[in-house]
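If your schedule permits, I should be very grateful for your opinion on a structural question. Thank you for your consideration; the sequence and its tokens are set out here:

===
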Amino acid sequence: MFADASNFVQSVNNTFLFIVVVCVFFLVLITILMITFVIKYSSKKNKRAKNIEGNVLLEITWTVIPLALVMVMFYFGWTGYKQMTDIPNNAMVVNVYARMWSWSYKYQDGFKTDTLFCPVNKPVKVLLNSEDVDHSFYVPAFRVKKDVIPGRINTAWFLPTRVGSYEVYCAEYCGLNHSYMYSTVVVMTKEQYNNRLIRTNQPVNQVPDSLSNNKANL
């Protein structure tokens, strides 16, 4: 789950873990307080109900602390969003085409494949095109997800940092066979990429045998 397969993994994981820790902390705290108050103020111990006066300091505290936590979450989200929209100028450009219910990829040199091949440690900019309905390009291992909308081209990018094979899913319900709409990103060494996609002058649609054992189910 936490393998660094792209440059976004660490920041997304940190944000996720921070939110989970905050939520679990307050879940436990509120649960303990509820149980304590139920016992302390039960009808057996308090035969006669009475009003409890307000506490200004307490009210300020439980307003300021959640506000501060939400602002920290917003900061993590904003910095992560800026990173995901700051596409490097030297990124390799790949056109991604989504249709019911398959993916295809067209490279700048004209090759078209049903598997996305890219060299490791090279930024990749994907131009997302839909040929019919709404889809969503989702690579869990890279922490990348972007909607693919008909009539417009959305962009996303990632920097693959680990050689291997990673699943691509459609994360937007797009019809009867939506659950079967998946593909693969194969991250290769620079030499493997050049040999298979340039020197052979052949489009590639199979996962290299040397990478099949590195498939990541993230």
